[in-house]
Amino acid sequence: MNTIHDIDVNGKRVFIRADLNVPLDENKMITDPLRIKEFLPTAKLILEKGGIPIIASHLGRPGGKRDEAYSLKPVAEALKKELNCDVVLAPDCIGGEVEQLAKGLKPGQVLLLENLRFHKGESENDPAFANALASLADVYVNDAFGTAHRAHASIVGVPQKLSNHVPGLLMQKELDYYKKALLEPERPLCVVIGGAKVSSKLGVLQQLCAKADKVIIGGAMANTFLAAQGLQMGRSLFEQPLFRQAIEITGHIARRGAQLYLPVDLVVAPSLKSQGLARNVTTQEVPADCMALDIGPATRILFQEALQNAATIVWNGPMGAFEYEEFAAGTESMVEAIGGALGLTVVGGGDTDAAIHKLELAHKFDYISTGGGAFLALIEGQKLPALEALGISLQ
Fold first, then answer.
1. What is the rounded CA–CA span in Å between residue 241 and residue 54?
2. Residue 17's pLDDT is what?
3. DSSP 8-class letter at 22
4. Among candidates 22, 33, 58, 45, which has minimal Cα distance to 141?
5. Checking DSSP bridges between strand 165-167 and strand 259-261, what pairing results, if any?
6. What confidence score (pLDDT) does residue 241 get?
């Protein structure tokens, strides 16, 4: 597999598909610049090698039509500051005026195309739209792991038109850590899965449980496993149609000689908004009028001890409704425990990422994936359109 280090970009226009879908406040100010900062090494390397970056990204969901609320203008200003060079925001991402801007670029300049999703052709992978984008450049670089599971024009159509195509540094880093964590992990491998629904992560659970030495399940997802064992879960969220799959996964883990860790106590309350009414109970004593909203203190200790000798840890999903202070202790304890672990730590998922950054402990983790859906799709064993378009196989 060729990398960005292997290709000659000197004097060439380089189409970079980035994921600069940053959150904005009501004043169009960027509230979290993480995706921009993660992308900077690729842009800087291309500039250093004499290439001329033409950066493309989406922002939000404008629905295939122009909407100034989703303009990349704030991103252009941030890139100009971070790259310390001339960053021009194109009036669109295709069209005659954009073509003229691209042709007039000189080394040291950067062109940021306007929001790709202002055109329906992006999400529909329209060949004409892909051709128009490809005509702007000589080389294609995909650095947008967060959209790697989307078969959109800028992701699969453009590299078909530009034969010189490689992954960017961020994309390469994502793949390297996936390989280290799940394809060739140091053992014991411990996976931690949380979040709300088994149904949304059933494929991920099945894949991870076939590989891991230890499996920790928390959050509302654990409720389904507990209820499938016959425990009464009161008004807790669980998925009765998936009881059979939960029992099968439990049995599969046991037959492999691996260990499954489920909560032994829970923080319950009548509802999320029942301030002051939260209390700790064992999993055998969930009141009929309450719902489980976090793991309890005994479970926090159990999970922490299970992590202690892990050589590799992969985590996705919170342990409870951490957005509410009364139900945040479980997730926060996992942030601290995994962040302090001696083994390789790889984390994915927007909620998990948010919990880590809330505690300002991101520096404690070896890698935090920039792709939520793409991270899960990769773990599940799905073929990602972006990787196929680049000719990358992870098997």
1. 49
2. 98
3. -
4. 45
5. unpaired
6. 95
Looking at residue 200, its pLDDT comes to: 84
Please give the tally of structural domains in the chain.
2
Q: Is 2 a member of any domain?
A: no
How far apart CA 317 and CA 315 sit, in angstroms, is 7
Residue 89, φ and ψ in degrees, nearest 5: -90, 115
pLDDT at residue 209 in the model: 87
Q: Which domain holds residue 57?
A: 13-172
Q: Classify burial at 183, counting beta carbons within 10 Å of its beta carbon; exposed 0-12, middle 13-18, buried 19 or more.
A: exposed
Which CATH number is 102's domain given? 3.40.50.1260
**Is position 385 within any domain?**
no
Q: List the chain residues with pLDDT less than 50.
A: none
**Bridge-partner residues for 167, per DSSP?**
142
Q: Strand 214-217 relative to strand 259-261: parallel, antiparallel, unpaired?
A: parallel
The reported pLDDT for the residue numbered 378 is 87
Domain contains 74: yes
Long-range contacts from 181-184, C-beta under 8 angstroms, 24+ separation: 181/312, 181/314, 181/344, 181/346, 182/208, 182/211, 182/314, 182/379, 183/394
> Which residues are tagged catalytic?
35, 197, 350, 373
Position 333 scores a pLDDT of 97
Quote the DSSP letter at residue 384. P
Residue at 8 is within a domain: no
Report pLDDT digits (tens) over 72-84.
Answer: 999 999 999 999 9
